[in-house]
């Protein structure tokens, strides 16, 4: 069910906090939006980017920063739905990355499942990735 405007704003505030902390390379800020549970999951674009638990997520973020000079994540279109203390979100994203001296702007996608604990929404499961560049528009599978 579509989230009410208050829930939508709170969930988007969590995602914005994550992207702001990511851009400023604030590892503790990034981790603060994830649940402290051992089974919290974050998927990324790379084949090896399945991170389970906050320490693995920390390692992924540190790897991203070690391999880039700058990186930002901006949200575009988004949808937030909720039922009780659980919310799920999907958003289009734009990655602005400088890596190896080269600036890149890449289209991205994000999905997340959050749970409200007390007065805070926390990410339990997230997925940020890039669409398959080798897959032509209108085609269901990469060529």
Task: Report the β-strand fraction as a percent range.
Answer: 35-45%
Distance between the termini: 36 Å
Number of helices: 3
Spatial sequence of strands, sheet with the most strands: 2-1-6-5-4-3
Helix-residue proportion: 25-40%
Q: What sequence of helices (H) and strands (E) makes up the elements? A: HHEEHEEEE
CATH class term: Alpha Beta
Number of strands: 6
Structure description:
This protein is an alpha+beta fold and 143 residues long. It has one domain: Nuclear Transport Factor 2, Chain: A, CATH 3.10.450. It contains 3 helices and 6 strands. A 6-stranded mixed sheet has the order 2-1-6-5-4-3, with helices on one face. Strand 1 and strand 2 form a beta hairpin. The chain is globular and about 45 Å long. The termini are far apart. The relative contact order is 0.19.
Keyword list:
single chain; 26% helix; 143 residues; 6-stranded mixed sheet; alpha+beta; 3 helices; Nuclear Transport Factor 2, Chain: A
Annotate the secondary structure layout.
Layout lengths: L4 H19 L3 H5 L9 E3 L6 E3 L1 H13 L3 E14 L2 E14 L2 E16 L2 E10 L14
Parallel strand pairs: 1-6
Antiparallel strand pairs: 1-2, 3-4, 4-5, 5-6
């Amino acid at each position: 069910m579509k989230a009410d405007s208050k829930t939508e704003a709170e969930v988007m505030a969590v995602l914005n906090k994550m992207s702001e902390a990511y851009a400023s390379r604030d590892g503790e800020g990034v981790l603060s939006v994830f649940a402290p549970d051992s089974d919290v999951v974050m998927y990324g674009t790379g084949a090896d980017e399945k991170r389970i638990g906050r320490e693995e997520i920390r390692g992924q973020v540190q790897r991203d920063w070690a391999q880039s000079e700058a990186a930002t994540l901006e949200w575009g279109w988004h949808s937030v739905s909720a039922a009780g203390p659980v919310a799920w979100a999907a958003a289009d994203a734009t990655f602005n990355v400088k890596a190896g001296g080269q600036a890149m702007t890449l289209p991205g996608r994000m999905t997340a499942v959050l749970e409200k604990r007390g007065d805070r929404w926390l990410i339990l499961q997230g997925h940020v990735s890039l669409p398959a560049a080798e897959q032509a528009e209108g085609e269901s599978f990469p060529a």
